[in-house]
Automatic annotation (TrEMBL):
This is Transcription activator. Residues 1-151 form the AraC effector-binding domain. It comes from Pontibacillus chungwhensis BH030062. Pfam families: GyrI-like.
Length: 151
């Protein structure tokens, strides 16, 4: 399914993964997901314990925004667990594509989404936060809503 939707502000708590090489993210992100899942009971004001969210900016904007955030959404920031970070993602309009399959296939699906965005007359905004909303996450099977910011 493809479409356009506005997503309200999201308050996220989890881990920030920063790697020197792009290929390293494929190794480090799954580790961060598993680590976060094992500590989700420590997160206060959790919105949905079955929904992991990845956040990133597709273009380099600043050192503070570099990396990939592996998070859970919270209603409000309260007593962030040690070693975790918080991130507020402002409300944004997104082009959305649902993907089911292996984690390694997600990169290829973005090419299709970007082409669709252009065909629909929208413009990508890579300096804003992209979201990957997982209702199921594993190395081999994912059910994820890819949200690419547009205007």
């Amino acid at each position: 399914m493809r479409g356009i939707k506005t997503v309200n502000e999201k308050k996220l708590v989890g881990y920030r993964v920063v790697c020197n090489e792009l290929e390293e993210y494929g190794l480090e992100i799954p580790i961060a997901f598993e680590r976060l899942e094992s500590r989700k009971d420590e997160i206060n004001q959790l919105v949905d314990s079955g929904q992991l969210i990845g956040a990133f900016k597709a273009s380099e904007t600043s050192i503070e925004d570099d990396g990939y955030w592996v998070c859970y959404e919270v209603y409000d920031f309260e007593d962030i667990p040690k070693e975790m970070v918080s991130l507020a993602v402002p409300a944004q309009k997104y082009a959305v594509l649902n993907y089911k399959g292996e984690a390694s296939g997600i990169y290829k699906v973005y090419d299709d989404l970007h082409q669709w965005i252009e065909e629909q007359g929208y413009k990508r905004v890579p300096a804003k936060w992209s979201l990957e909303v997982y209702s199921k996450w594993s190395e081999h099977e994912n059910d994820v809503e890819l949200c690419d910011p547009v205007m």
